[in-house]
Design brief:
The protein is of the alpha/beta class. It has 19 helices and 20 strands. It binds ligand FAI. Keywords: Hydrolase, Multifunctional enzyme, Purine biosynthesis, Transferase.
């Protein structure tokens, strides 16, 4: 690509553009088309007429000088960019703060107002919103009448536009910010520049990410035009603006619709965290995206976990780690949850975490290797020991999964949205409906069994049955087409230890006699906890009374389909 010469763009200065009579004086000055810029514009038009506009050289500005517009809030690597562009012969035009930083870095720069003949005004709300800027970005170089229009109005073309936006996201997530401050942090001129340049990417390179500066400079140094490169930048630019707008829109919805959870429409800003080796199965490609919704700031969870050691996480690893971590995050006391295929199959809560681990593993001993460990933190020694266990063991450090989020789930052609199941154990009231009341530890066992069932149903399909004793899960059954089948599986796992234990069900028992309730009673459990609400609730009460089992209704169902 032709290097051109570094020159300050001064040709726009010739016309006063403000106040009444602006049109007249403007026309008057334009009538004397004599500047070098206008001569250059004519040269560019001649080139367009000659059909040379698709060659890289044709992206020279109408003035014959290549121009870059730079307007950045985040000024990371700005000096390198400015010096690089200057070295390549670009004339640089910038907004106030960016121009000052460039000057401080020894780069020649022209302020936007020298082109627009308007000062930056309204506290920065209007800086670059001007035909002298947007005409120079949007004009099609292969359209004679576009270049004629630029020429008529004394507007030069821009070849490169580098913009990043007011840090709206950081501001509104950094703590208390007033509504007015939020509004002032919505960038208007920046997205407009980005969209204009991205639309005209055939002739204008648009950059929104400082990580792309080296590639931009390398591209500009090259001899070949590459429309793919330009299109990728344009894609990224529109994506950048779309993400930005989704944050603004989410924030505004929250400001104006307190308490109303479901907006009529919304956009979820996702960014690629990693591509994965494959999906659930090797023939499926897969990737992991982080969700940058404002409502998910500081909610922790697996998406923001740090991996300290081990093989790269797979698609199924993420699902399992998520199920285990969301489950363990529910407990206040030290708890260990073992998950297989997203089912919590061993859960123990003990003051000593090592003891919790031993008991949880005992409930469902690993049938092979352990794939992932997730914890809120590790001592240096602990990490060393775990690393020594296996080269592949994935060791993750995660922050507790938060509450109050919207849960989204895909179905063919749409998404289901619901509030996350944030009910705390304190919100559950155990109502004794049987003749016998649970005694001593039976009550806490019932509560723990219910908690386990509750945690299970958040991650596995109903029907869910959990048997627990001494703060330890003894057995669980889930995902079976009927409740009796889940119950049988849970009892098979619990074995003889089920005698005197508590049993919990995620939903009511539709039948009692010759069915799940009677089977549970005959297996020797001391307490059954279930939501209640069946038309045959009385059968369940009568059955428990017959066997001397305590029956508790919780009034809360925790289906997961
Ligand atoms: N109003 C405008 O015409 C306008 N043009 C560019 N900006 C933004 O101003 C910022 C740079 O400002 P400065 O160079 O003064 O630090 C950039 O983030 C850019 O997106 C604008 N500001 C906000 O809307």
């Amino acid at each position: 690509m032709e290097a051109g010469t570094a020159a300050r763009v001064t040709w726009g200065l010739r016309r006063p553009c403000r106040g009444p009579g602006w049109g007249q004086s403007r026309r008057a000055s334009l009538s004397s088309l004599s500047s070098s810029a206008e001569r250059a514009a004519r040269r560019a038009m001649a080139a367009a007429e000659a059909g040379a506009s698709t060659a890289p050289e044709a992206s020279l500005s109408a003035s014959g000088v290549k121009q870059a517009l730079i307007s950045l809030s985040d000024k990371t690597d700005l000096a390198n960019l400015g010096n690089g562009l200057q070295r390549l012969g670009f004339s640089i035009i910038s907004t106030g703060g960016t121009a000052s930083s460039l000057e401080a870095a020894g780069v020649n720069v022209t302020k936007v107002e020298e082109i627009t003949h308007f000062p930056e005004m309204l506290d920065g709300r209007v800086k670059t919103l001007h035909p002298s800027i947007h005409g120079g970005i949007l004009a099609r170089r292969d359209q004679k009448h576009h270049l004629e229009a630029l020429n008529e109005h004394g507007i030069g073309t821009f070849d490169v536009v580098v913009v990043n936006l007011y840090p709206f996201y950081d501001k509104v997530t950094s703590g208390a910010i007033s509504f007015e401050d939020g509004i002032e942090n919505i960038d208007i001129g920046g997205p407009t520049l980005i969209r204009a340049a991205a639309k005209n990417h055939k002739d204008v390179l648009v950059v929104v990410d400082h990580k792309d500066y080296p590639a931009l400079l390398e591209y500009l140094e090259g001899k070949q035009d590459d429309q793919d490169f330009r299109r990728k930048l344009a894609w990224k630019a529109f994506q950048h603006v779309a993400s930005y707008d989704s944050a603004v829109s989410e924030w505004l919805w929250k400001q104006s619709n307190k308490g109303d959870t479901f907006p009529p429409s919304f956009t979820v800003p996702l960014s690629l965290k990693s591509t994965l080796r494959y999906g659930e199965n090797p023939h499926q490609k897969a990737a992991f995206y982080g969700d940058k919704s404002l409502s998910l700031v500081n909610v922790g969870g697996i998406a923001t976990a740090i991996q300290h050691h081990g093989k790269e996480m797979s698609y199924n690893n993420y699902l399992d780690a998520d199920a285990a971590w969301n489950c363990v995050s529910e407990f206040e006391s030290p708890t260990c949850v073992v998950v297989k295929h997203t089912n919590p199959c061993g859960v123990a809560s003990q003051q000593d975490i090592l003891e919790a681990y031993r008991l949880a593993v005992k409930a469902d001993p690993p049938d092979g290797w352990r794939e992932i460990v997730v914890a809120p933190g590790y001592t240096a020694k602990g990490l060393e020991v775990l690393k020594g266990k296996s080269k592949t063991l994935r060791i993750l450090e995660a922050r507790r999964s938060g509450k109050g989020t919207l849960s989204l789930r895909q179905v063919s052609g749409g998404w289901l949205a619901q509030e996350s199941d944030d009910l705390t154990p304190e919100a559950i009231t155990f109502t004794k409906v049987s003749a016998r009341a649970p005694e001593g530890s039976e009550l806490s066992d019932a509560r723990f069994a219910w908690l386990c069932a509750w945690l299970c149903v958040k991650h596995v399909k109903s029907n869910a049955i959990v048997i627990a004793k001494n703060n330890c899960m003894l057995g669980m059954g889930s995902g079976q087409p009927n409740r009796l089948e889940s119950l049988r599986i849970a009892f098979r796992k619990a074995g003889e230890e089920a005698r005197g234990a508590a049993l919990a069900s995620d939903a009511f028992f539709p039948f009692a006699w010759n069915d799940a309730v009677e089977a549970a009673c005959r297996s020797g459990v001391a307490v059954i906890a279930e939501p209640g609400g069946s038309i045959r609730d009385q059968d369940a009460v009568d059955c428990c009374d017959k066997y001397g089992v305590a029956l508790l209704f919780t009034g809360v169902r925790h289906f997961r389909h």
